[in-house]
Write a structure and sequence with these properties.
The protein has 4 domains: 154 residues, Alpha-D-Glucose-1,6-Bisphosphate, Chain A, domain 3 (3-Layer(aba) Sandwich); 103 residues, Alpha-D-Glucose-1,6-Bisphosphate, subunit A, domain 3 (Alpha-D-Glucose-1,6-Bisphosphate, Chain A, domain 3, 3-Layer(aba) Sandwich), CATH 3.40.120; 145 residues, Alpha-D-Glucose-1,6-Bisphosphate, subunit A, domain 3 (Alpha-D-Glucose-1,6-Bisphosphate, Chain A, domain 3), CATH 3.40.120.10; 83 residues, 2-Layer Sandwich (TATA-Binding Protein), CATH 3.30.310. It is globular, with a radius of gyration of 24 Å. The chain contains 19 helices and 19 strands. It has 566 residues and is of the alpha/beta class. InterPro entries: A-D-PHexomutase_a/b/a-I (IPR005844), A-D-PHexomutase_a/b/a-I/II/III (IPR016055), A-D-PHexomutase_C (IPR005843), A-D-PHexomutase_C_sf (IPR036900), A-D-PHexomutase_CS (IPR016066), AMG1_II (IPR049023), AMG1_III (IPR049022), PAGM (IPR016657).
């Protein structure tokens, strides 16, 4: 390690005084002008991680659904998964080190993780379409090269595409070809094969309006379009030619405002979807004949996918271990439908994609989606081999079902939630089952619910168990919630501390919106009284005009609840 060269280069990417950042599930995110030093240092860290794992590591420059003036960075581990938790701590430590401590921190990480500094390192880099991304990407490259790492700069990619590239490179091409054409061809071939099996004629189910959030998704979908055009016609909106990234559009805007994005006219019963800024989330929606807006979120996407996979397994005659992984925020109706109607087991984890992904790996087939539309399906290696064999050896209907499952497996991006991949999976399933968007929506009716937040002096007074569904401390809070829940039909409620600010998040659902609102308010009062609430006591009552305001101001991007009835 040439410490002199690192010190010299680091001075060119100097850290602003007093800036402290935390590496979270989404990596680092803040205003783009504060990130130059972080990018350089993440280039350094990626080289150390690559040497330690003897694998290719990914670095993605993006801030996903954040405003255009923000940016961020996250590292991608060898199988396309998120960075290991111990390395998240190293990332935070390195990003926040003062210039004079840089050498010591790098040596500490190398020693703690037993990094062989003579080992070769290879890093792949991708970026989104933000004006700041190209320059910040160059800072990552500076960090990689000063530590002697090799790199490949993919340039403009969606976040899940970079995850895919890392996975391909570390499986010797077994998972796929680590090029953008390889990605397009693998997914499109599987999609076209699947839609050939669809019995519906004409283009009734084959046309889709896509809101690309003025982001990278538009660029990549346009490049990919001709590969799958015989199976689906897509009409792109908010393609980046005019509007600002994520401004009044994108999956996050649509779900938190419960309305279509700006710049998209919707006729009744037209099928529409929205990506987020880096195309790793997707939500669907439509207007019914009366002009009412209907959102189809991650819960309903998981239900459609897992039900279809279960049907194929029954057809083939395979009793594989299939599971759906949700968080406590999943609507109770989706959980009941999966368990009672489809007989698919449902498991709950703590909030956060890494928890869902990890749990899904425990099954032969694991499907996970957050309500915000981020998710995918994972298939064990043994299952993939078994299905491949079945597609070659079985007869007639069974063989056809096995072939479908083989193509579905290829259509999923198993490295990460991927809006393009998920869109093609959904479109294929709707075509194969002959379902309209309304029929899909009608699988079950969401229970009305409400999310609120309560300001507290210290959020750490709340601790939870059972995948955040039960409060352990402060004493008496869970008992109070249990008593309140008993007052309402089909009800449940839980509280959890925010990961970022001194607030406690409250979720309640019940058989009517009025009951959900009352329950949420009563639970908020219990939190205020028992967990050290500060400021004004929670007030009852909701006016339609205030709801959107409350959702967006109270919960911020990505946390507002998409089921809220406006």
């Amino acid at each position: 390690m040439d410490l002199g060269a690192i010190t010299k280069y680091s001075a060119l990417h100097a850290k602003p005084n007093g800036l402290i950042l935390q590496y979270g599930t989404a990596g680092f995110r803040t205003k783009a002008e504060h990130l130059d030093h972080v990018m350089f240092r993440m280039g350094l860290l990626a080289v150390l991680r690559s040497k330690q794992t003897k694998s290719t590591i990914g670095v993605m420059v993006t801030a996903s659904h954040n405003p255009e003036e923000d940016n961020g960075v996250k590292l991608v581990d060898p199988l396309g998964e998120m960075l290991a938790p111990s390395w998240e701590e190293h990332a935070t430590c390195l990003a926040n080190a003062e210039e004079q401590d840089m050498q010591r921190v790098l040596i500490d990480i190398s020693e703690k993780e037993a990094v062989n500094l003579q080992q070769d390192a290879f890093v792949v880099i991708g970026r989104d379409t933000r004006p700041s991304s190209e320059k910040l990407s160059q800072s990552v490259i500076d960090g990689v090269t000063v530590l002697g790492g090799q790199f490949h700069d993919y340039g403009l990619l969606t976040t899940p595409q970079l995850h895919y590239m890392v996975y391909c490179r570390n499986t010797g091409g077994r998972y796929g070809k680590a090029t953008i054409e390889g990605y397009y061809q693998k997914l499109s071939k599987a999609f076209v094969e699947l839609t050939k099996q669809a019995s519906c004629s004409g283009d009734e189910y084959r046309s889709l309006k896509v809101d690309c959030a003025n982001g990278i998704g538009a660029l990549k979908l346009r490049e990919m379009e001709h590969y799958f055009s015989q199976g689906l016609s897509v009409q792109l909106f908010n393609d980046g030619s005019k509007g600002k990234l994520n401004h009044l559009c994108g999956a996050d805007f649509v779900k938190s405002h419960q309305k279509p994005p700006q710049g998209m006219e919707i006729k009744s019963n037209e099928r529409c979807c929205s990506f987020d800024g880096d195309a790793d989330r997707i939500v669907y929606y439509y207007h019914d004949a009366d002009g009412h807006f209907h959102l189809i979120d991650g819960d309903k996407i998981a239900t459609l996918i897992s039900s279809f996979l279960k049907e194929l397994l029954v057809e083939i005659g395979e009793s594989l271990n299939i599971g759906v992984v949700q968080t406590a925020y999943a609507n109770g109706s989706s959980t009941r439908y999966l368990e009672e109607v489809m007989k698919v087991p449902v498991y709950c984890t703590k909030t956060g994609v890494k928890h869902l992904h990890h749990k899904a790996q425990e099954f032969d087939i694991g499907v996970y989606f957050e309500a915000n539309g981020h998710g995918t399906a994972l298939f064990s290696t043994a299952v993939e081999m078994k299905i491949k064999q079945s597609a070659e050896q079985l007869e007639d209907k069974k063989r056809k079902a096995a072939k479908m499952l083989e193509n579905i497996i290829d259509l999923f991006n198993q490295a990460a939630g991927d809006a393009i991949s998920d869109m093609l999976v959904i479109e294929a399933i709707l075509a194969l089952k002959g379902l309209t968007v309304q029929q899909w929506d009608a699988l079950y009716t969401d229970l009305p619910n409400r999310q609120l937040k309560v300001q507290v002096a210290d959020r750490r007074v709340i601790s939870t168990t059972n995948a955040e569904r039960q409060a352990v401390t402060p004493p008496g809070l869970q008992e109070a919630i249990n008593d309140l829940v008993k007052k309402y039909k089909l009800s449940r409620a839980f509280v959890r501390p925010s990961g970022t600010e001194d607030v406690v998040r409250v979720y309640a659902e019940a058989d009517s919106q009025e009951s959900a609102d009352h329950l949420a308010h009563e639970v908020s009062l219990a939190v205020f009284q028992l967990a050290g609430g500060i400021g004004e006591r929670p007030q009852p009552g909701y006016k339609a005009a205030e709801i959107t305001h409350n959702i967006n101001n109270a919960f911020g991007p990505g946390t507002a609840n998409e089921h809220t009835v406006l």
